[in-house]
Amino acid sequence: MESAFAIIAEPSRRAILTLLASSEQSVGDLEEHLQLPQPSISKHLRVLREAGFVESRVDAQRRVYRIRPEPLKEVDAWLEPFRRFWSAHVDALERHLDRMNPTPPRRKRKKR
Amino acid sequence: MESAFAIIAEPSRRAILTLLASSEQSVGDLEEHLQLPQPSISKHLRVLREAGFVESRVDAQRRVYRIRPEPLKEVDAWLEPFRRFWSAHVDALERHLDRMNPTPPRRKRKKR
DNA sequence: CGGCTATATACTCGTCCGCGTATATAACGC
DNA sequence: GCGTTATATACGCGGACGAGTATATAGCCG
After folding, report:
1. B6 partner at 20 to 30 Å CA-CA among A13, A16, A85, B109?
2. How far is CA A53 from the centre of its chain?
3. CA separation (Å) from B97 to A21, A40, B45, B88?
4. Which residue is nearest to nucleotide D19 (CA to C1')?
5. pLDDT, tens digit, for every residue of B37-84?
6. Angle of helix A11-22 relative to helix A27-34, nearest 10 degrees?
7. Cα(A108)–Cα(A63) distance, integer angstroms
8. Which nucleotide is nearest to A12 (CA to C1')?
């Protein structure tokens, strides 16, 4: 298990991260919100922790987990080359679309 | 194979997408750039196509593939709640960091 | 100390998926 | 039509990983 992408491929882990995005949570909190068996939560948290997505603080018997942004930043950075396909000026996208569907200007429609 | 996240968990598929981000490419082009066996490329392209990441155009015997942005937009959108952890004003992040590491102001260091 | 709560780990099982190899389909040029 | 090129599909294998169950660890309170 290496890349940040493989980590967030798991739906439960994404759910955990989304919950932690709003505020830090204990394992019990997560268990309650996600309706998942506790060992499952702990296991996912371990994966997330070892990959640097989260870190934990000790509060008595509880372990409170919080987000660490670095790996997600990495994902965000990977998306960069693709943003031109939707963001900002639609021109680039349209040119791209046009190139693949030549839209013959002023000509008898051949097929559909 | 459902979520966009699962699709881009695969390194070869990310490589394909990155190549296609710069310009459309035939299967042979991809094969050459990525140094992967052709059946592997075709199989990954199939997955990407069925998940809506790419679409193909026919050019004689060649199939030329190009990016379709929608699924990546979805990933981009999912990242939104996390951007506050790094982007824009660092204040939010710092407050977050402070909360977990109280930084007792002016006190004898206990541990570490 | 003893029981309770909170969390982590161990282990087995079934499944999914990428890889490699072989083969099928299809369009080109002669 | 035939050989060749370009791409897709079929199949079997092995490894990885998530789910579930059981158990271990650790800190709390009385």
Report:
1. A85
2. 11
3. 13, 27, 42, 16
4. A40
5. 999 999 999 999 999 999 999 999 999 999 999 999 999 999 999 999
6. 120
7. 70
8. D18
Query: Which residue is listed with tokens 């006190």?
Result: B107
User: For residue A69, what is the nearest residue in chain B, using CA coordinates?
Assistant: B85
pTM given for the model: 0.80
* Distance in angstroms: CA B76, C1' D8: 31
Q: What is the pLDDT of residue B102?
A: 39
Nearest nucleotide (CA of A37 to C1'): D20
* SS3 letters across A20-72: HHHCCEEHHHHHHHHCCCHHHHHHHHHHHHHCCCEEEEEECCEEEEEECCHHH
Q: At what angle do helices B70-83 and A70-79 cross, to 10 degrees?
A: 150
Q: How close B51 comes to chain A (CA, Å)? A: 14
Q: Which of A56-60, A93-97, B67-71 has the lowest mean pLDDT?
A: A93-97
Residues of A whose CB is below 8 A from B83: 76
Token pair 């966009």 is found at: B4
One-letter amino acid for residue A38 of the chain? Q
> What distance in Å separates the CA atoms of residue A49 and residue A57, rounded to the nearest whole number?
12
Separation of B61 CA and C29 C1' (Å): 12
Phi, psi for residue B33 in degrees, rounded to 5: -65, -40
